[in-house]
């Protein structure tokens, strides 16, 4: 009677298949809880690859250094401050993207950065939920480190909004890139040029966040920035919006965007008046109106 080798062979094949799958070089999107600290929305995609919010202070860079970060890649409109990174030996790279997607050249540059720069790498936008995770995923796919499915899983984990369809599409269609394509990238700048309008939007976003932070702290002036009172910040928001109205992009987009900008300017003026007069309960409502005017404009034009 023949020995039933198949009874032994099939379990061996099954076990070997599991071992191969578990030892795959393709990392899984991480949902591990990361150390608490000042960085918002900090997530780990895989070993040596992180995404999150902007690191604007020394405390943020200290947290990055504790994680071992060697390279920070910003995809925000505003480049990071290299003076904050320098004491920690962290390199800064600026590869800004919009909310509407990631073009082919930028995708190549992101992949080249992830393939060639020193790890661990931290990729960030402003809040760390939308552009940063998408850019990290597109770069990691291009570098051959993750799959498209893993990218989608990670962006869901980080809370990337489904309304930014261009970011999701960029992660869906990204493909691994060959060495000759990546070799075409000859510069990864510390500060990339951006348009004046995009730069202003970045500053406006930060002023808006700062004013909300003050409102949550009983409208107190920050101890480390005594010149930035709520009145001063609301005035800066109003002035910046008025200046942006003169930008060429407003003319190019037409009357619809012009009208929306006027709505935002009027709302910012009301915020400034309410705060200056000490009408803080009314200021909350006018800030909500300003926020909604920005959301309406972004939904249509961003």
Please, could you describe this protein's structure?
This protein is of the alpha/beta class. The chain has 2 domains: 140 residues, Protein tyrosine phosphatase superfamily (Protein-Tyrosine Phosphatase, Chain A); 106 residues, Up-down Bundle (Four Helix Bundle (Hemerythrin (Met), subunit A)). 55% of the residues lie in helices and 7% in strands. Strands 1-2-5-3-4 form a 5-stranded mixed sheet, covered by helices on one side. About 8% of the residues have low confidence.
- The rough form would be described as globular
Q: Can you list the strand order of the major beta sheet?
A: 1-2-5-3-4
What's the CATH H-level superfamily name of the largest domain?
Answer: Protein tyrosine phosphatase superfamily
Low-pLDDT runs of 5+ residues are: 5-10, 12-28
Share in helix: 40-55%
- Domain count: 2
Indicate the CATH architecture of the largest domain.
Alpha-Beta Complex
Helix tally? 13
Helix and strand run? HEEHEHEHEHHHHHHHHH
CATH class of the largest domain: Alpha Beta
Structural class: alpha/beta
And the CATH topology of the largest domain?
Protein-Tyrosine Phosphatase, Chain A
Beta-strand percentage range: 5-15%
Termini gap: 75 Å
**Largest sheet: number of strands, sense, barrel closure:** 5 strands, mixed
What are the main properties of this structure?
Protein-Tyrosine Phosphatase, Chain A; five-stranded mixed sheet; Four Helix Bundle (Hemerythrin (Met), subunit A); alpha/beta; 2 domains; 302 residues
């Amino acid at each position: 009677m023949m020995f039933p080798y198949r009874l032994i062979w099939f379990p061996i094949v099954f076990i070997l298949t599991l071992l191969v799958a578990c030892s795959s070089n393709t990392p899984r999107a991480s949902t591990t809880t990361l150390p608490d600290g000042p960085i918002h929305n900090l997530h780990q995609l895989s070993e040596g690859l992180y995404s999150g919010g902007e690191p604007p202070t020394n405390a943020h860079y200290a947290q990055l250094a504790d994680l071992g970060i060697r390279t920070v890649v910003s995809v925000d409109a505003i480049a990071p401050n290299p003076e904050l990174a320098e004491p920690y030996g962290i390199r800064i790279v600026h590869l800004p993207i919009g909310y509407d997607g990631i073009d082919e050249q930028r995708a190549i540059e992101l992949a080249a950065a992830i393939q060639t720069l020193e790890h661990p790498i931290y990729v960030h936008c402003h809040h760390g939920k939308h552009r940063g995770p998408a850019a990290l995923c597109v770069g990691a796919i291009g570098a051959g480190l993750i799959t498209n499915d893993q990218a989608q899983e990670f962006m869901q984990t980080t809370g990337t909004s489904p309304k930014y369809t261009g970011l999701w599409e960029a992660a869906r269609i990204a493909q691994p890139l060959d060495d000759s394509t990546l070799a075409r990238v000859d510069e990864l700048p510390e500060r990339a040029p951006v348009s004046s309008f995009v730069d202003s939007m970045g500053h406006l976003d930060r002023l808006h966040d700062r004013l909300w932070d003050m409102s949550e702290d009983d409208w107190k002036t920050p101890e480390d920035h005594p010149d930035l009172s709520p009145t001063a910040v609301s005035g800066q928001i109003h002035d910046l919006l008025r200046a942006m109205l003169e930008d060429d992009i407003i003319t190019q987009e037409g009357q619809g965007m012009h009208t929306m900008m006027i709505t935002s300017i009027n709302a910012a003026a009301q915020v400034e008046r309410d705060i200056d007069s000490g009408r803080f309960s009314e200021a909350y409502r006018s800030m909500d109106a300003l926020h909604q005017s920005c959301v309406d404009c972004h939904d249509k034009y961003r």
